[in-house]
Amino acid sequence: MKQIYKYIGVVLALIAASACDPLKDINDQITDGRPSENFDYTLTEDDYDLSCSEAVQRFKSFSQDVPPDNDTCGVAQILDQKFLGVAGDVLNATYDYYNPLYKGTTVQYKANQADYDRFGQYGNLNLTQSIIVCDSIFTLTSGKTAVKTDVVALTANYYDGRTTHNDTLIEYISFGSPIWHQIYVLQTSDYELMEQATNPNFFTSKSNALHRIPTWLKQHGDPYANAGDTRIIQYTVREFNDQGTAEYKDYVAQFDYNGAEWENISDTSPQTSAFKWSAENSNWAISPVYTFTRQPDETEPTDGKEYTLTASDYSSVGESFPNFDTRNNTQEDIDRKIGIILNSQSEVNIEENDNIKVNYAVYPSGSAPTEGVYKATL
Q: Would you say the pTM of this structure is higher than 0.70?
């Protein structure tokens, strides 16, 4: 990194001395002066101020509205103002990405006898069966598969392992079909245990809620959780509008158990993308985004190209541990996330139609394959 800044200083001196085509001369001299390199950089808060997007400047992150690969105000636009590269340079930029959890499109549904008959003659549903019903009903009702934030409000007879609760409404939120999680709405007794206001129930701020809920989960809400368990909690916050009037707003948040503590999964998480220096255009451009398709097991990798996922790879696609938890990921989810990782990594040089062997870990052990060959296509 120091070498990069050193060459930036050389560039400034050359600009002052040049009298003809300074940019071409500068690039020629830099290219002659050092070999290409691969380096990592994490955007600072000040870097986001360089963005041409007011939203990126304000929230210090990219989002679905202003994605990191945006042609105008993406990550590359910031990098262009900070680093001058040479042909062959690869910059692995880490930035914050805002992908909030909230209750989006909601489908209301009441289970009927046909739904119960799918799973036997008991006249009720357990958690797994409820999720299957939610996934199929959402697709049937909306005409599309569920994505993150889609909700099904399912009224049914529920069996919790001990008791059947008749005509009970429970909401389920999707993390992308077929992954759904039950939403638990905090009750008055829960607020009391967390020493919060009741009648009405509320927290004084989101930060207060996110600070207290993990302790409540560990001690009362789910004291017998297993590592990797996920809980979605709905809570209420009292906020004041511009006129000073109190408003009570509901929020949902994800909490994952790491084996010792419950952790809130932030709406903003770091992601990494690889950018290559274009000597022709004198700017940074995000590496080609390939579509990676899993190939039959007997497929051989191209020229022995192979990649083993690292701990940071897993975290970059939202995993809490250095593995893919098959309780929350289908094989399709795993393949999709591996594609994201392969597009971001820079260890293996990938070209169109290459077959890349990928080694990865899953949890629980043996619940899914741990290697695969993926073909890159544009």
A: no
